[in-house]
């Protein structure tokens, strides 16, 4: 994630240097540019709003550097915002991202940059984008923004210690102190360019549903792994698929994992706690 942020910061200064009066050409969005496929158009302008003029040497590699941030799901329109800069739609006039779009994405994605010790880059000042929403790309409607705000989202947090359940009463206390508990398989695989990808394998098994029930729990926990990469690495040591019981909270629209117990086949204390939970009174 840190390498992503450094790359992100290196992308941005070129934006302010882009001249809307310069000559451009239209090219097809390459198939290798997965980030900006299926965005509603098939041709893009070169140079783009980041000053890139080469697809192979600049645009495609830079688009791949954004994938980890997009995987966090920090904002549903983050990809639209990114692609409006990397792969501007090819029309008779230049179409920049709207200021409202920039502000909405910044509010949700900037905390992830702050989590790694970086502020939202000054070169991406939202005031430099047009405020007239009929002259820019993909304004964010108030209805869509409201809908997104009511969905819970993972938070950047310190990784809880992985606790060996020495007594089932201790596990029951953890369930009582949190409003959800789930059993999950966490998998780690190595991707091209030596990148790691973490995923929740298979279905999520509910122990205590809490406030997670109405939502896509697997996707929320998957995003939690992407947001908290250091914790995901700890949970996937050795590259094996490991099983854990995660206990946490959903409060004020934020998902946090507070307790982590490893699930072993012969761990009687944890399995006893799970069985007793059905009839346990906190």
TrEMBL record:
Subcellular location: Secreted
All residue ranges annotated as the NTR domain in the record: 159-282
Entry's Gene Ontology BP terms: canonical Wnt signaling pathway; cell differentiation; non-canonical Wnt signaling pathway
Signal peptide: 1-17
Disulfide cross-links: 102-126
UniProt domain FZ: residue ranges: 21-139
Matches recorded under Gene3D superfamilies: Frizzled cysteine-rich domain
GO MF term list: Wnt-protein binding
Gene Ontology, cellular component aspect: extracellular space
Highest taxon in the source lineage: Eukaryota
InterPro entries for this protein: Frizzled/SFRP (IPR015526), Frizzled_dom (IPR020067), Frizzled_dom_sf (IPR036790), Netrin_domain (IPR001134)
Alphabetic keyword roster: Developmental protein, Differentiation, Disulfide bond, Secreted, Signal, Wnt signaling pathway
Record-stated family: Belongs to the secreted frizzled-related protein (sFRP) family.
Protein name, entry field: Sizzled
Organism the protein comes from: Erpetoichthys calabaricus (Rope fish)
